[in-house]
Amino acid sequence: MNDSIAMKKAPVSISLKGASTIATDLAQIVLTEGKLYKICQLFDLSAGLEANLRKSLFFSSIPGMINIGSVFLLNTGLATSIVIEFVAFFIGLQNAMRPLKEHSSSAKSSRTK
To answer: Which DSSP string do the residues of the chain spell out, in sequence order?
Structure first.
């Protein structure tokens, strides 16, 4: 069955390693082991990514609102705004690196068992 048209129109398409060439070319995700048992991990990974992106959006929009409010209400200057932006940048950077840190710590704990 040729489902390449559906794969082209789908927001996210998944293919297996042994599928037709057009299916693996059109798919955004190709499961290289050729079996579907890893798809649950894929859904967990995607849920974690979405949660992390929502946190990043929060961390990037709140400092702007704080800066705008503080300029008009507290008469803060440019230096204060720059400090707030840099603090928010480093918090966002730490949030972006958190999944990598969790992955490395889980890999270490699995090796020691």
So the answer is: ---HHHHHHSSS-EEETTS-HHHHHH-SEEETTSSGGGHHHHHHHHHHHHHHHHHHHHHHHHHHHHHHHHHHHT---HHHHHHHHHHHHHHHHHHHHHHHHHHHHHHHHHHH-
Q: Please give the model's pTM, rounded to 2 decimal places.
A: 0.60
Indicate the domain borders of the chain. 4-34, 38-112
The tokens describing 106, both together, are: 């889980």
Residue 102's pLDDT is what?
Answer: 75
